[in-house]
Amino acid sequence: MRRNHRTTLIAQTLTATAVIAAAVGCGPQSAGAGAKAPAAPGAPSAPSTAPSTPAPPAASASAATDDKPATPAGAVAEPAAEPTAKAAAKPAAKADPEPAPKVLMANGSKGAQVKELQARLAQIGWFDDTPTGTYGAATTAAVKGFQGKRGLPATGSTDSVTWAKLLGMTTEPTAGELAGRAVNKPAVKLDPRCLTGHAICISKTSRTLSWVVDGTVRSTMDVRFGSQYTPTREGVFKVFEKSRDHVSTIYHTAMPYAMFFSGGQAVHYSSDFAARGYNGASHGCVNVRDKAKVAALFDQVNIGDKVVVYW
Q1: Are 128 and 278 in contact (CB under 8 A)?
Q2: pLDDT single digits (tens) 3-55
Q3: CA-based diameter of the chain, in Å?
Q4: Which neighbouring-strand residues pair with 278?
Q5: Please, which residues bridge with residue 237 across strands?
Q6: How far is the C-alpha of 29 from the C-alpha of 72, rounded, in Å?
Q7: Cβ–Cβ under 8 Å, residues 173 and 182
């Protein structure tokens, strides 16, 4: 009997140890979780208000890698961390926006500076009328076009930034320019690709076409291009077709002296350009307004001659 009683006591002790091991588990635990280590077998256990049923097994290794692992049963949750001084600090105040450029001239303005503005715009092909000194619809449209091509806000009003840009691209108008009798355009800057062979050299910056033979400019003429929705392509091309009395099969408009260089885009005379100037645009072609000059060019250009369109 004494031996059986001793065997019973040992079995009860082993069972109690197994229950304690199952409650703690063997999975990883988050640092500082606040769980107490299990008491050694045989040591008196502290009183607890937790339920007498064993806690579920510890979470798997994959769950333990979550940002916020679950607190083991019986563990004391950590208090929320106090916000740091950096987190509590208010965001820095935004810097005040830069003031808008000062408007120097706008629709309705009059005077000598407006006349100078018109003459300078004429030098780079943005104003076709005689300078009047009155800032009207034509001047507003010209300024708006100039601003848009230079990446400036296209307001149509001449502010200090627009004026400075225009001054840097033009020269002081002469008496003849101010009177509308002459227009002195800046010298055309040829693209290096135009300097060899026969080349129709087309600058979008100066809006001019230069016929260049072995690096020598033979003639220059004003041109206009497609709108933002039908832009004239840029790059190096070759004339692949000539048509003296061509009529567009798409728009059914006359395209005299057409020299095709890229798909349906061609250099040709435009009666609309001759009548309206830069107030209009092409559907992608390079319009020439001087009929005599483009007719002479048509007779000199051969199939295969180079066409260079650039800024």
Answers
A1: yes
A2: 555 555 544 544 444 433 333 333 333 333 333 333 444 444 444 444 444 44
A3: 136
A4: none
A5: 307
A6: 8
A7: no
Instruction: Give the whole-angstrom CA distance, residue 268 versus residue 206.
Output: 18
Query: Given this model, what pLDDT does residue 90 score?
Result: 59
pTM: 0.53
Nearest to 257 by CA among 21, 82, 100, 247: 247
| Whole-number Cα distances in Å, 185 to 7, 85, 212, 225, 310 | 117, 64, 18, 18, 18
Burial-class residue 141 by CB neighbours within 10 Å (0-12, 13-18, 19+): middle
Tokens 């059986």 map to which residue?
4
CA distance 34 to 204: 75
Give the whole-angstrom CA distance, residue 104 versus residue 43.
94
- At residue 175, φ and ψ (nearest 5 deg) are -60, -40
For residues 227-238, average pLDDT: 92
- Provide the angle, in degrees to the nearest 10, between the axes of the packed helices 137-149 and 112-123: 50
> How would you write the chain as a 3-class SS string?
CHHHHHHHHHHHHHHHHHHHHHHHCCCCCCCCCCCCCCCCCCCCCCCCCCCCCCCCCCCCHHHHCCCCCCCCCCCCCCCCCCCCHHHHCCCCCCCCCCCCCCEEECCCCECHHHHHHHHHHHHCCCCCCCCCCECCHHHHHHHHHHHHHCCCCCCCCEEHHHHHHHHHHCCCCCHHHHCCCCCCCCCCCCCHHHCCCEEEEEECCCCEEEEEECCEEEEEEEEECECCCCCCCCEEEECCEEEEEEECCCCCCEEEEEEEEECCEEEEECHHHHHHHHHCCECCCEEECCHHHHHHHHHHCCCCCEEEEEC
pLDDT averaged over every residue in the chain: 78
Position 109 confidence tier, pLDDT thresholds 50, 70, 90: very high
CB-hemisphere CA count at 13 Å for 56?
Answer: 5
